[in-house]
Design a protein that fits this description.
The chain contains seven helices and nine strands, in the order H-E-E-E-E-E-E-E-E-E-H-H-H-H-H-H. With 316 residues, it is α+β, with helices and mostly antiparallel strands. The chain has two domains: 114 residues, Immunoglobulin-like; 160 residues. Helix 2 packs antiparallel against helix 3, helix 3 runs antiparallel to helix 4 and helix 6 packs antiparallel against helix 7. The chain is rod-shaped. The chain starts with a helix and ends with a helix.
């Protein structure tokens, strides 16, 4: 009889414990691409299963982010976190008091979830950490950077061909050389921002500096053609048009890539940059062939002029 009484008393005391217990969760990770963050808070020993008997508070240190008063179904929400809400109001009576926040409003910190049911209460702490991640695939980023470097080498190679083969245009290429140097500096800065492990906004700026200033290449290519040709030929305009097509594809890929997180459309940018690289390679071949023609014509003209003068003297 004594054992039965003791067992019943212990059962009553265990059921009527004044402490609420929670599912143990130490921290959650927030990814940079997440729009929403959910901080879990699960009570495992509710008795009433009725939210009208509950009071819930979410806090960071002493700052109350969200509170709920069950008897009158009222809420309080701090103005600094207007998105704060329960992940599921319907599941609150089942012990799910998880907090839902916009990612932009969720700061890395230790959050406290306090729950009271009648005369029973308890709290749990959950840490929030931001996990760094890339918006763009690293391999694809390296490919784009390598293609951009290849395009820059081709631009300088065209200037080198002109400098070696065409003595008469050396003085005219100063402005083109400066423009090529400026584009090179922009490209180096872009690659550093683009491929480094940093914030998503920094990677987006790097991609923007990689793609958008590439429009300078068409103007630069036209200027290079003008250095070696008096009038740009149809082949020259066709090569510039080929570059324009590649640039437009790269810009479209950029617009699609920055709007997706994580981005799976960087291949469109790669396709555009590949077209531009091929156009620059063909332009180098074209400049080399034109320079050889110009190089051969210049000495011939220099020889023909004395011969013409000699013929004039003989005729007199």
């Amino acid at each position: 009889m004594w054992l039965l009484t003791t067992g019943a008393l212990l059962a009553v005391l265990g059921t009527g414990s004044t402490e609420l217990r929670f599912r143990a969760i130490n921290y959650v990770e927030k990814y940079a691409c997440n729009d929403v963050v959910v901080l879990p808070c699960f009570v495992v020993n509710l008795l009433e299963n009725n939210d009208s008997t509950m009071h819930v508070r979410w806090m960071i240190e002493e700052l109350v982010l969200l509170s709920f008063h069950g008897p009158n179904q009222s809420y309080y929400r701090d103005v600094s976190v207007p998105s704060a809400a329960f992940a599921s109001k319907a599941d609150l009576a089942k012990g799910d008091a998880s907090l839902r926040l916009k990612s932009s409003e969720a700061m890395d910190a230790n959050y406290t979830c306090e729950v009271t049911e009648l005369n029973r209460e308890g709290e749990t702490k959950i840490g929030l950490r931001t996990r760094m991640e890339r918006q763009f695939d690293l391999i694809q980023s390296i490919v784009i950077s390598a293609l951009l470097a290849f395009i820059i080498v081709l631009c300088w190679a065209q200037l080198g061909v002109i400098a070696l083969k065409c003595e008469t245009v050396r003085k005219k290429k100063k402005d083109v050389t400066i423009a090529c140097a400026i584009f090179t500096v922009i490209a180096i800065v872009a690659v550093v921002l683009f491929i480094q492990d940093g914030t998503i906004s920094m990677n987006q700026i790097g991609l923007a500096f990689t793609v958008l200033p590439s429009g300078m290449l068409m103007v630069l290519q036209y200027s290079i053609f003008k250095l070696i040709l008096d009038d740009v030929t149809r082949k020259g305009y066709a090569l510039i048009g080929f570059q324009v097509v590649g640039y437009l594809v790269a810009v479209v890929g950029f617009a699609l890539s920055v709007s997706a997180c994580p981005s799976v459309l960087l291949s469109v940018v790669i396709a555009g940059v590949v077209v531009m690289a091929v156009a620059d390679l063909l332009a180098l071949v074209y400049v080399y062939s034109c320079s050889r023609t110009k190089d051969h014509q210049t000495p011939r003209k220099a020889v023909e002029e004395p011969l013409n003068d000699t013929k004039g003297v003989m005729q007199e």
